[in-house]
Amino acid sequence: MVMAFISDLHGNREAADAVFNDIAERGINQVYHLGDLIGYGPDSVYVANAVFDRGIPGVPGNHEVGILKDTYDTWNDLAANAGRYTRNLLLKDDNIAVTNQLWELVRGPRYRLFEVPMDGDKEPATGLIVHGAPHKGEEVDDYLKSYHLDGRPYGWGWSDELRKAEEICGKEVHALLHGHTHRPLIRTSDLNGSGDFEDPYLYVVNVGSVGQPRDENPRACYTIIHDDGCVEHIRVDYDFRTTMKKIEQLGKTGELMSETAELLSGRLEFGQ
Ligand SMILES: [Fe+2]
Fold it and tell me: Distance, CA 142 to ligand 1 centroid (Å)?
């Protein structure tokens, strides 16, 4: 069965709708989310409802945890200012139902297992999704140790990340999928060329960001695992000018600081 993975939607209604349409057109019924449904964008309530109404299972991101628990003040100014706007939105009486569902997400598991389809007659393997990096504890806002934020290899080998994933779930893990940096990346034992692995389908994948890509490509990004276990990033055009205008409007009304609105709007055009 083909499955889709969406992450870092960040209240971007137009990007979320475009990605859900693309997933539906491909006939994909199994979808997981990797957190950060809310924050930054103007339509956090709409996007969270769109995910919850579809019954999509997932894990919380640092924006759900920080905004719901009111700890976003420790973030950088841009994220904290946007977090304040989103928290005010969620505290409105009309939004109690979705806020309660977000609390359930925040109190829920930090990782989830799924079955990775394998080519031919092979038994499905185990995959694991997290927001930022695998942890036994409650941590949601740190990064994999094996690469710089721009995707360059660093420190740990990426296979160590798989071992860490195995430690937290007590099973052999073939696929570790994560989000958080908003930069799509696929690392496999094939591409790695280390020759350390018997199975060529081991991989660590950054699934990219639906609502705020930062790889200098403004199109919404999500990830598919095909029937044979192969991984693919999908890019989807969406009307980011409409999203930008909504953010700019929040700056004009004072709901967002004008400088914050300008930065959040401008980055969508360039995928930064
Ligand atoms: Fe994010």
Answer: 11
